[in-house]
């Protein structure tokens, strides 16, 4: 859905501009300016790209974890890599200073929510348990 919105951004903008210029009547032309202002706003574009990036990382992780041939060791590495990628976005996006609102109220909130979800699934207890299972499997494998 988000990639479709990104793909259709320019045609949507062109269509709204066409309606603003050649709409059936003055009321239609006037109504078209509000959605155009909304989609051209920094707020909309920033949120769209931010969500697209974060959800892309989470989708890759989700797809990898759903593979039947995925082992526990590799799964834990993928979780760690996904967390690092999200923090990389944080450092990259905010190398240039944006308004405090976007940094604290929007971006950090989204990052915190995604990391909290990953931590809920892969908390210290679960990670330790999986590490013990991995260690035990490696010991049994070496004994054979």
Provide structural commentary:
With 144 residues, the chain is an all-alpha fold. The protein has 7 helices and no strands. α2 (9-22) runs antiparallel to α3 (26-40) and α4 packs antiparallel against α5. The model has no long low-confidence stretch (mean pLDDT 80). 86% of the residues lie in helices and 0% in strands. It folds into 2 domains: 1-40; 42-143. The chain starts with a helix and ends with a helix.
Assign an overall shape.
elongated
Number of helices: 7
Q: List the domain count as a whole number.
A: 2
What's the helical proportion of residues?
over 70%
**Count of distinct strands:** 0
Radius of gyration: 22 Å
What is the distance, rounded to the nearest whole angstrom, between the alpha carbons of the first and last residues? 50 Å
Biggest beta sheet summary: none
Structural class computed from helices and strand pairing? mainly alpha
The helix-strand sequence is: HHHHHHH
User: What is the average of the pLDDT values?
Assistant: 80
Low-confidence runs of at least 5 consecutive residues: none
Amount of beta strand? under 5%
Oligomer: single chain
InterPro entries: AtLOH3-like
